[in-house]
């Protein structure tokens, strides 16, 4: 490949073309020079107002922004950076040093406000939500990236190093604080310090990525380009591509919307990455994104319009406050595509959009005004000026006079609506007069400069010959041979290519040409004839290669290489080669090459030898079979052989297959063919996937144990045959193991037969099933709090947040990301106060336990094929498991209050008698122990012991020996509650085991028992609670409850452990089957004394009856 360098963008003054109309074009009424002068006048008058509003602080200038509060912002949207950027742009056009002086003054004030954080510089962004001194800290162009862009342009204009230092410092802050690593690539966080709830937006990716590219072009520091490529890789990885269309949802993790605005922003970055790297993948995905935008357009009689995220048809990009420099309109991206690809269909779409704009514009005076939304009005110079920029670009590309006339009318209305106060300003609907960029004089003045400040796209002319067949040949005088040259356009513009043999060669002058778009391959065939009078011998024919912009003058003429021609005497042998060597193969893959050498001459060939040669270590030979050498090859005979090769490292390699008549005296027949082979690391690419119900085909979120269909859209990227074995899936769980050592997995069965043929794209169907194992994930308390809220929202409200991001955030300890997701659910207006309280209580319990996250994330891989793209499946637990958790968490606060109170009573009661002490001890730990045990048991695998029913509990004989007291009766009810709760949970586990094993005859009996045992547990708890209240009341009236007795009881347990008579009683009564005495002892040793409010304790016990675990079990 020829060496190639993309030069930095340069700011150029584009003169609108003087167009000579033909019959097919509209004759413009507007005067071109007048339009340009009018645009410049409006910009100058806007600058007058901006300058008049500048305020001096130190040695710099600042501008006020008035909303509910008054701010002095350093940022681009409504601060000094945007005003400075406009004035600097005007200076470049006019050379007026006043504009430069104020631009530099803005920069000095901005630098004085820089905050040194995270290894770089950042600036606060103030608005009505954060009017204070700190403000927001935001990455995109409206904020910090825009400050960097202004300072970088100022450095390019003045060459003052300070501006570059702060521009690079801003980029360093974005990299260090805002660039988040993902499975593939990195994304830019809108608000790195997560000061509020935000999604992952499109425009910060574009804004930061373009800043990095421009810094790379300015400084030559490749790290900036690498960071931009990381963002590009993430965009490609997160794109949803099917066939010729890619879409991308914006506001990820929050709004999750597909929109023209979002897709245009990320496509713009991909185009710029293509121009910076010449990597065709960026261009391919960007073009597919533009295809998607075109696919959602709505055709009208006048042209085409595009729906915004809310279905309305806007004339300028929605979210213009976030997209101040690109895109202006939904059709801007079509102009970008056309400028790079020269695909005229893109230009046609842009023209159709402009025609729609013209059709809905409203005449007023000698101008027209454009509504923001079709049918709704909303007129302002801000809207007209953004439309004006688009229309001017379109006129530059087409020369169509209609757009020149339209642009003048747009300017006329902008001028007529200006208020003159030391310059031009355009009041907002509420009467505010804004000097800064967004909806202000700086922005409108900047857009009016469109005919004068457009940036020319980088245009690279390049190409290469990738192979020729044959590369050497044997011929007789008077014979002709054809040589096929494969040519590729490796530049960024459409180009013409010329391959020729020069005058003076054995063939004389022979030439061929071809026109190719960027990235395209083509073939040029040259046919050469050996003159009849040519003497036998070996001749070298130079091959010349040159190129030109399409329709331009030939340039860059080089000698590409030589072809060897052996001219034979009459009655000589002639060798010809045919082969099936692939031009694209996957690294590490073995493949076979078949070669046939035929003697097409009229004399036998002697001692014929053939072989394959390649550059570097492209391949490893695994052996050849057949005939590589022949002592004699008579006319018309052939020899054939096959070689097994193994592809080496990825790259592009030269390959030559040759055959020679190896005669001792020399001069034998010879032929060869040369070509290039690309070895790629990629075999398959995942274009998209979805999980659906097997029977209905409806999209689903799988749950544990459910069989579901997985549809994967795969494309063959190798250009080679992909065998069926390469399509097998395996899974990697996140986490890979739980604390018990179990490995969650999804088993998938390939339902489609047959391989993927060369370069094919297909939907491959799998039937998959996730095992029941739930992952226990120990993460921060913060992460648990969030997990509970998300699970509650997903199950109770039927809304599914982005649990993929949740899981990855937890695994990577990216807690700020999780916080945003949690706020998304916790503040939802859809959540009632009761529901919010329920979720909060669930969170508290999970936080106390360091939690269990009952969700497993799976990465599905292709173990026998290198694949680009990830298949990530999130599997929920069954509904019953979430219900168990939420039903319990809804009441555990009261239960734990009662439990702690009973623990205090226990330490007093153990000093009185073992029965009272045991009853309080069991009561104090009963609720948490049963529920914790049941909760954890319910989240484990189903029991495979489903062939046996769980028998009803029996009462241990020791209970018959107890005295007839309130404490003894409470002990009996405590035991029965524990035993029936345990039997219910075990029955449920066995029912789920029967479900998993499809043992339908056992499912109902276990579910029936689970419900029956739950009812019994609920019954005994309802009898127990009044007895506990009675015991508390009696003990309280006795006057024995005191801090002194509490301390005595605790000291005794700390020194001696639980009293032996209490431990023996618990064992004889069967409680140790369900409770850990050592754990109870540990709790009592460490509990702190609390002054009890007897009324609150009794109320808590009473309320715990209303929602104890039996009711939860009974509901199942």
Automatic annotation (TrEMBL):
InterPro entries: 6-hairpin_glycosidase_sf, Ig-like_fold, MUG_Protein. It holds the Pfam family TRAP_beta. PANTHER family: MEIOTICALLY UP-REGULATED GENE 191 PROTEIN. It comes from Candidatus Methanodesulfokora washburnensis. It comes from the Archaea. This is CARDB domain-containing protein. One of its GO terms (biological process) is carbohydrate metabolic process.
